[in-house]
Amino acid sequence: MTAYDVIIIGGGPGGYIAGERLGHAGRKVLIVEQESLGGTCLNVGCIPTKALLNSAKLYAHARESATFGVTAENVTYDWATMQGWKEKVVSTLVGGVAAMERRLGVEVVKAHATLLGPGRVQVDDQVHTSDHVIVATGSVPVMPPIPGASDNPAVVDSTGLLSIGSVPERLAVVGGGVIGIEFASLFAALGAKVDVVELLDEIVPFMDADLASRLRKGLSGVDVHLGCKVEAIEEGTVVYSTKAGEQHRLEADVVLMAVGRKPAVAGWGASESGLEHSGRGVVVDDRMRTNLPNVWAVGDVTGRSLLAHAAYRMGEIAAAQILDPVGASNRGEVMRWDTIPWAVYSLPEAAGVGLTEAQAKARGLDVITSTVPLQLSGRFVAEQGLKAPGTVKIVAERASRIVRGVHIVGPYAPETIWGATASLETELTIDDLRQVVFPHPTVSEGIREAVWAFKA
Ligand code: FAD
Description:
The protein is an alpha/beta fold.
């Protein structure tokens, strides 16, 4: 039995960043990871998808390059080489996290951990003690009870599709959330016939509805079937019904099940230790405290936001609370759930932060909005032309003119959005943003155009 200051269960973004912050402050930390350091994000999530999407984007751009005066003949892709590149990126980044933990003196073991109670964690067959425990067990894919979906070799989840042996000729995607749309875009760019079947009336449900509709219309080579319910999967055939009750059959070689992920609350002692939780996750407050003393939960397992950067911030907040329990220096270190940005790395890309117009109205806020085309940006026109999809929408409070939401469809949106996040964090007004100097020419100037498009 070894005593630690902190034991962290799970080495994904939530767990490893908490380990880094605590190790940096000189605490004796153990991270227990049963699979691979880096968790879902580095191994089978954010990073491998972006590596493959980058290859697909290069291929798509090369095929369109004649418009820009560059002739590329016989442009092809090689899926096996793309896979090799993806693996290299993943192993480099996982190695980087391992090196960082080592450098900061954080111990990492590959084992299954079970929470026995506050300060007690079983690691394989040994019990370790610690002053604090951080639970960061992540999430798992949801497999809905659709007849014919389980034990069907044609049906895969995102992890299965990431390492599939070849590009399918026909891909059906069940679920039009971020993961479904990114894979749809990836395989459509590589020439697959792609259909997305979505139960709701629009894709990416947390997006501002106007912009989600523009994103959907801008997705090249993807047929989206909205408001449709998958009734069954018969080998590679997806049987779905429309709201009007019509039944359709969609033939596919591979079916991606992408209806969402759920917090991983089973198999590590959540119930036995008395930790308050449900299928929706471990219950935490804004400081990542659970109902058990000195037991913290961060990342996807809380069910509050299933994004890697949200997991990072939750891990940092738990670490800050552990390092300064009195709170003298970390009064501000609470999770601000309204200002977590999100991004979709499809073609076109999209990103946003803060309230959508509908969310603002649902909260009873009196808001004004401004929507402009990205064709107002010189760089956008120079690099994309006049017909490419690109839009910025800003939501602001009418009376105070404080900006409450920024939503973008277009290139570089995932890179641009942090600036909008900083504006929301500091409650900048439309008039404050009008005084900010943007570099020219940049696509981010679309935000500047949008703030000037509000009426005086
Ligand atoms: P995880 O990364 O899931 O890590 C949890 C870790 O805990 C796992 O490694 C698991 O093995 C380990 N574990 C669980 N139980 C135990 C136990 N009892 N003992 C020991 N170890 C245990 N998010 C983004 O922000 N941007 C993206 O572009 C993005 N793309 C994605 C694409 C895909 C295909 C998927 C599936 C997800 C994507 N995500 C993305 C989501 C992102 O991966 C997660 O939000 C993030 O990984 C959550 O981090 P976490 O630390 O909470 O959990």
